[in-house]
# Entry
Amino acid sequence: MAGKTFELERVLIYRRDMEKLRKQELAAAKQRLEQANLDLEREEELVELLSQEFQKSQQDIGSIDEMRMYSVFFARKRDEINQQKERIKDLDRIMNEKREDLMEASKDKKVLESLKVKKAEEFRTEMAAKERKFLDEISIQKKVNAT
# Structure
């Protein structure tokens, strides 16, 4: 008894492929977010070290120009850190969108998979009923022929 093919098999394959693609996109988004967080941590640690160095060598600074250069440097680093924090917020938002896309793709795939299971069960039930009917018919024919 050969199984009947699921008429929406191509759609199911497409949805499986879409789910796989969404998983890859989510993984890439997570990786970008993690890297951005590492970059931010590294930058903040560097600024902290340089700030401590500056405090130690503050008495050795001989001119206002040197002091101004440090001030400009730290202001630029603060801006870079703030920009990195904004980038992290954007990457986090993107990752959440990718997660939602994956959830939607998984839901779409599961709907079709459950439909496929339901159709297969209907087919098995239909085939069992036809087989019972056929066996009943054979049984009736044997009784008619026997009498």
Notes: The two ends are 33 Å apart (CA to CA).
